[in-house]
Design goal:
about 230 residues; alpha+beta; three-stranded mixed sheet; 4 helices; 12 strands; about 30% strand
Length: about 230
């Protein structure tokens, strides 16, 4: 049996527009300003799906609603076989309309030939309250499922970002300084040699490696693992 034709709950534009404006106003009142930083690929490996020259260059400011108001979610601080790991997580809600408005101001990138229309996994969010970077791990593009027949928000699940020598050139000091504080051995002058290796020596001539190797037991004269041919 068909639905009642005298009630339009899923395709009435004035009601949809009203809900969208209420969502916008709510996020502006109770949300927080963050920086959204889309990633830029420079040398993408299509086999492994990674880029050794990944860069974060574009950035825009936008308001988002913090869903985790009590504390960080996730496993937080844990002791693993790799030592202390901090896995802070939280979820943010952003208006679709506002995201499209702000992302439309960004220049087109070669790695993204079309305009950014939604948050993407791998992009970063700078969270000013903790002065930390968080990586988007999952984007729920059907958050608040078709209220009055329309989608109004995105929900992004973020995890504390693990720096691995990506370049930051956003023009925002608070963001770019994170790279400067964490960089150890990155090839700043782009000459192909990490800066922790002096320019007059290659990896084969590294004195530290050579000194450490001298402490390794030499079994060339007495080999306890041979079959009697000592």
């Amino acid at each position: 049996m068909a639905i009642n034709p005298y009630f339009n709950n899923y395709n009435y534009a004035p009601t949809q527009d009203l809900i969208e404006e209420i969502v916008l106003e709510s996020i502006k009142q109770y949300g927080i300003d963050v920086y959204y930083i889309p990633k830029k690929f420079n040398k993408l490996d299509n086999i492994f799906g990674e880029d050794i020259l990944q860069e974060y260059k574009n950035i825009f400011n936008i308001e988002m609603y913090l869903e985790n108001f009590a504390q960080m979610a996730g496993e937080r601080e844990i002791i693993s076989k790799f030592g202390l790991e901090i896995k802070d997580e939280f979820s943010l809600i952003v208006s679709r309309k506002r995201f499209e408005q702000e992302s439309a101001k960004l220049p087109l990138m070669d790695s993204r030939p079309v305009q950014i229309e939604s948050p993407m996994m791998g992009d970063l969010i700078y969270f000013p309250l903790t002065k930390g970077l968080f990586e988007i791990k999952y984007v729920d593009n059907k958050h608040i499922f078709y209220q009055q027949g329309k989608l109004y928000t995105y929900k992004v699940d973020c995890e504390l970002y693990k720096y691995s020598y990506e370049r930051f050139n956003t023009g925002v000091d608070d963001v770019d300084s994170i790279e400067q504080n964490l960089t150890k051995g990155i090839d700043v002058d782009s000459d192909g040699i990490p800066d922790y290796i002096t320019k007059n020596q290659g990896p084969d001539d590294n004195e530290t490696v050579q000194n450490d190797s001298n402490d390794v037991i030499d079994f060339s004269e007495i080999d306890p693992f041979s079959e009697g041919n000592y």
